[in-house]
Design goal:
The structure is a single chain. By secondary structure, this protein is an alpha/beta fold. It has a single domain (3-283), classed as Rossmann fold (3-Layer(aba) Sandwich). Helix content is 31%, strand content 25%. It has nine helices and 14 strands. The chain has helices at residues 86-91, 107-123, 125-128, 142-153, 175-181, 184-188, 196-201, 225-237, 265-283, and strands at residues 7-17, 20-28, 36-41, 53-57, 60-63, 94-99, 135-140, 155-156, 159-160, 164-168, 215-220, 245-250, 258-259, 262-263. The strands form four sheets. Strands 1-2-6-3-7-10-11-12 form an eight-stranded mixed sheet, with helices on both faces. Helix 2 crosses helix 4. The radius of gyration is 18 Å and the shape is globular.
Length: 284
């Protein structure tokens, strides 16, 4: 696939939050297979830092390859390649880069945004030439939580919309236990400043009992305890209610697959390959 062959449609409005438009970007491959993957653009419950296109003119945009990705005006950052849409687009998946509302909104509102985006994409599937029965979702860290929680709870009538979930190092299996053990979480993440009953009700431990889509979890075994706990809990608890799971543990890697000696591109490449295989198996 040539980068210029990807059709980029930025800033599609899917909703509104307190007067602010909620948007996603659509990336259409030259040879679509009808499947859809949503990327929850979130880190530290802040959305929109990473953009995978460059504006060429007011009416044209170019998809950025994995080794071109930056934050702001920085030089390309190798670590960002682990989030690239390139492999998914090569496979024929249409990708939607979903942004949620930011502070002062709290994470419960952000989850509502993600569910609204999922529903919007399902409802517009025919318009985009997509199969509404082949929707997957992907996220990392806070976006990993939102991908899992959104994938479990976004409904059309009585059916779950999402058919497969992939998540890198997600948080949030048991939020009350996490903030009790690590109170700095609330201090560093304004989105977590909600009542304890909200933390409890929206913990993943209370969202999966009715079953859910197959779920892939990828994480490093040197990550933070409030990340390791959720990863291991998803892998151990979801099968008890019949949810298919698969885990990939990257030994020696911490959060964002960083190591003591820095980021190794082969770790991100391995995660990308596993995610692609997962969606290929579950959505094709």
């Amino acid at each position: 696939m040539e980068m210029q062959d990807v059709v980029v449609q930025p800033d599609i409005v899917y909703g509104e939050r307190e007067g602010q438009k909620l948007t996603f970007d659509r990336y259409a491959p030259p040879q679509p297979n009808g499947g859809v993957v949503l990327f929850v653009n979130s880190g530290g419950f802040e959305s929109g830092k990473l953009t995978q296109y460059k504006e060429i003119s007011p009416t044209s945009w170019r998809f950025l390859g994995p080794r071109e990705l930056t934050i702001g005006d920085s030089e390309p950052i190798p670590m960002l390649a682990q989030f690239s849409f390139g492999a998914l687009l090569d496979e024929g998946f249409t990708v939607f880069d979903v942004r949620h509302s930011n502070a002062p909104q709290t994470f419960d509102k952000m989850l509502e945004d993600v569910r609204q985006a999922i529903g919007c994409i399902r409802d517009r599937a025919e318009e985009y030439g997509l199969d509404p029965r082949r929707i997957g979702i992907f996220g990392v860290s806070s976006g990993g939580y939102l991908a899992v929680a959104g994938g479990l709870t976004a409904m059309h009538e009585t059916e779950q919309i999402v058919r497969a979930i992939a998540t890198y190092y997600p948080a949030g299996f048991d939020f009350p236990a996490d903030v009790e053990a690590f109170p700095q979480i609330r201090e560093s993440l304004p989105a977590m400043n909600v009542d304890d009953d909200v933390l409890e009700s929206l913990s993943i431990k209370n969202l999966y009992q009715a079953g859910g889509p197959p779920t892939l979890v990828i994480y490093g075994d040197q990550d933070m305890p409030f990340i390791l706990g959720p990863c291991r809990s998803i892998l151990s608890e979801f099968p008890k209610v019949g949810i298919e799971v698969k885990g990939l543990v990257i030994e020696g890697a911490g959060h964002e697959f960083n190591r003591e000696d820095g980021y190794r591109p082969e770790d991100g490449d391995r995660a990308q390959a596993e995610m692609l295989d997962w969606f290929r198996a579950k959505l094709c």
